[in-house]
Amino acid sequence: MNDIEKLQELIDNSNNIVFFGGAGVSTESGLKDFRGKDGLYKEKLDVSPEYLLSNKCLYNDTDLFFDYYRKNFECSNIKPNITHKYLAKLEEKGKLKAVITQNIDGLHQKAGSKNVLELHGSVFKNYCDDCYKKYPSDYIFKSKGEPVCSCGGIIRPGIVLYGENLPSDFDKSIDYLRKADLLIVAGTSLTVMPASSLLYYFGGKNLVIINNDKTPFDYMATLVINKPLKEIFSKLK
Q1: 226: left (phi over 0), alpha (psi -120 to 50) or beta
Q2: Quick one: how far is CA 111 from the chain centroid?
Q3: CATH number at residue 38
Q4: Which residues carry out catalysis?
């Protein structure tokens, strides 16, 4: 029995599955990851990407923040790939109870997934920092300079920046992980805290990790597959 057959058997025998994914889930749709060989963090810049994606940069170097944000995070025309589509079908069957994602691109929802827990927020949820009025992503991406609300406040993307706390979806994720019988982790190096710490809350029997490279949590897994995601999810039923 090969790895894909083993994974299929685990899925077939599970009724409370949770999926936890990172940037590698969306790279096959054409988006860049962060820490990969061609990732955003490997670009040579005058300042670090961690600063460019921090709340300090947002409020102290606002134009710099939005220049970088607009350049790298416009994804309204990006389409879901086979992994997103497979997970939506698995949820429709009633087997997959939640998708936990570190991504901010909304591709799981585009594919049809309903219960998506976004640990780092979403580019599609934008709001005024003063009055909390909501704005579509186009308002930021198609404007120039600092996007300003009708009240005069700055409109910011609803993503978690460096220096900010994770949203309530983090606590919701813990609850789903405690109840799950199968956890599938894919497309993440599992090196970013506190998101990777979620694996310690998994209370089920089988953990599957699918990633191009090894992760610090491989020792905990029932099954580890080091192959591109499309090679795996395109063959699952």
Answers
A1: beta
A2: 14
A3: 3.30.1600.10
A4: 120
Of 108, 143, 159, the one marking the end of a domain is: 159
Per residue in 194-232, pLDDT (tens digit) is: 888 999 999 999 999 999 999 999 999 999 999 999 999
Coil/strand/helix, residue 100: strand
Burial profile 90-128: b = 16 or more Cβ within 10 angstroms, e = fewer: bbeeeebbbbbbbbbbbbbbbbebeebbbbbbbbbbbbb
Q: Residue holding tokens 């309530």?
A: 168
CB-CB neighbours of 23 under 10 Å:
23
Reference 151, options 124, 174, 128; nearest CA is 128
Contact 184, 25 (CB under 8 A): no
Instruction: Write out the residue range of the structural domain in which residue 101 sits.
Output: 1-31+80-120+165-237
Closest C-alpha to 141, from 131, 126, 153, 152:
126
Q: Record the tokens describing residue 118, joined without a space.
A: 């976004």
> Which H helix or E strand runs over 196?
none
Residue with tokens 């940037």: 23
pTM exceeds 0.90 for this model: yes
Q: Which amino acid is at 20?
A: F
Residues in the chain: 237
Tens of pLDDT, residues 131-158: 999 999 999 999 888 999 999 999 999 9
Q: Are 116 and 109 in contact (CB under 8 A)?
A: yes
Written as one letter, the residue type at 42 is K
Location of structure tokens 């020792």: 219
CATH for 225: 3.40.50.1220
